[in-house]
């Protein structure tokens, strides 16, 4: 078999596979540390960030059994102000970063009991949140339904516009000298008798060589051909349908902060942007690579959102879209070196990709420059799944069929 053609330029220190926000922040931070860095993705800045609402919700999105992840989420939340300021400064982009806080509300007795439990968990975890009566919730957000029975005010959970974040990271990478290959990575290239990752081969057969390869393809991270099964990340796609509506600018804001609820067991959030966009999300569906927007998904989101904020049915519905969260077996990301020499992971961020962007960039830059994970990221080493990892989805077979870019809207992380 003839070997694939090489690119003529010298091999970079690092090649990041995947140009979603996680791949981009990894490439940006690596380049800032002086590493010659390249990135491969057919559409850098695309991926799940094009769908995500952008809540920075370490406190309101806390779940039982995720205390370890909470520490990383909080570490990233603390970095956000400086991270956003630096990114805005180097690119001149407005990131839509709003330090507006979040209100999580309950509509019936079951939802209220659920919220009380969440409050207790937050308090046990030393997090700041304040219980409010229904009346106090409506005083903060007058457009809430009269039936709201109580809520949690969390002033530390903010938001950013993930589309703007992704565009700014593309610009930051360009300014930092990251070489971007607009191509589909087809398979991992191996050297030293299959014992070291040496680059990737793209769909047109070009070999892109690099000192190290970082796999950051979001929900597709488990599908790159050529990755040995024992280091293939156990990532699965978890579909989320999200709506976008337009709020009128004439009568003051419809909502002042992010509003969340669990409506009859379904998590719901409404994220109002300064631009006038209102993001309503999200379904959570285990349907493989399906990104169809369904009548049922849109109906349920609108039905629940209407129960929470009746006035939303007056608004123009401007967009419906589905994205794929990169789910991992413990809902936490996989960061850093794998058991294959030269191959690192930055994937599996599941519900927290936007929140975890700053800390992921720092962790990966540290791992790429020192070979070690910083203390805060040690619980997220990919090796934690090596012994126990079982295919959670048919995609996790040794040589999965890789979907063509046109079949998937979400290649990137
Ligand atoms: N973090 C919001 C979501 O995953 O829907």
From TrEMBL:
Residues 388-413 are annotated as: Disordered. This is glycine oxidase. Pathway: Cofactor biosynthesis; thiamine diphosphate biosynthesis. Its EC number is 1.4.3.19. NCBIfam families: thiamin_ThiO. Residues 13-366 form the FAD dependent oxidoreductase domain. It comes from Streptomyces plicatus. The keyword RNA-binding does not apply. It is an enzyme of class 1 (oxidoreductase). It catalyses: glycine + O2 + H2O = glyoxylate + H2O2 + NH4(+). It holds the Pfam family DAO. Keywords: Oxidoreductase, Thiamine biosynthesis. The keyword Oxidoreductase applies. GO terms for molecular function: glycine oxidase activity. Residues 388-405 have a biased composition (Low complexity).
């Amino acid at each position: 078999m003839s070997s694939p053609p090489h690119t003529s330029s010298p091999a970079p220190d690092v090649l990041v596979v995947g140009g979603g926000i996680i791949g981009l922040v990894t490439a940006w931070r690596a380049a800032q540390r002086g590493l010659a860095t390249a990135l491969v993705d057919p559409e850098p800045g695309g991926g799940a960030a094009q769908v995500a609402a952008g809540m920075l919700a370490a406190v309101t999105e806390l779940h039982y059994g995720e205390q370890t992840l909470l520490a990383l989420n909080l570490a990233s939340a603390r970095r956000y102000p400086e991270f956003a300021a630096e990114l805005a400064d180097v690119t001149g982009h407005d990131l839509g970063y709003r330090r507006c806080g979040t209100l999580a509300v309950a509509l019936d007795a079951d939802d209220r009991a659920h919220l009380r439990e969440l409050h207790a968990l937050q308090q046990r975890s030393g997090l700041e949140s304040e219980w409010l009566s229904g009346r106090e919730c409506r005083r903060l957000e007058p457009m809430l339904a009269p039936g709201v029975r109580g809520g949690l005010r969390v002033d530390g959970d903010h938001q950013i516009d993930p589309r703007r974040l992704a565009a700014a990271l593309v610009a930051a990478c360009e300014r930092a000298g990251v070489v971007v290959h607009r191509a589909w990575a087809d398979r991992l290239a191996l050297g030293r008798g299959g014992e070291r990752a040496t680059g990737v081969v793209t769909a047109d057969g070009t070999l892109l060589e690099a000192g190290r390869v970082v796999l950051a393809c979001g929900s597709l991270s488990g599908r790159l051909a050529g990755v040995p099964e024992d280091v293939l990340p156990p990532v699965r796609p978890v579909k989320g349908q999200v709506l976008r509506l337009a709020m009128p600018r004439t009568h003051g804001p419809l909502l002042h902060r992010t509003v969340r609820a669990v409506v009859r067991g379904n998590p719901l959030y409404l994220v109002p942007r300064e631009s006038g966009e209102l993001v309503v999300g999200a379904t959570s569906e285990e349907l493989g690579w399906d990104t169809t927007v369904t009548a049922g998904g849109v109906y349920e989101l609108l039905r629940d959102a209407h129960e929470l904020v009746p006035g939303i049915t007056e608004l123009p519905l401007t967009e419906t879209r589905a994205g794929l969260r990169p789910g991992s077996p413990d809902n936490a990301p996989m960061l850093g070196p794998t058991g294959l020499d030269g191959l690192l992971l930055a994937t599996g961020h599941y519900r927290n990709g936007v929140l975890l962007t700053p800390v992921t960039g720092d962790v990966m830059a540290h791992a790429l420059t020192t070979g070690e994970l910083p203390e805060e990221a040690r619980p997220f080493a990919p090796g934690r799944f090596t012994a126990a990892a079982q295919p959670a989805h048919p995609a996790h077979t040794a040589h999965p069929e890789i979907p063509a870019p046109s079949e998937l809207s979400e290649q990137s992380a």
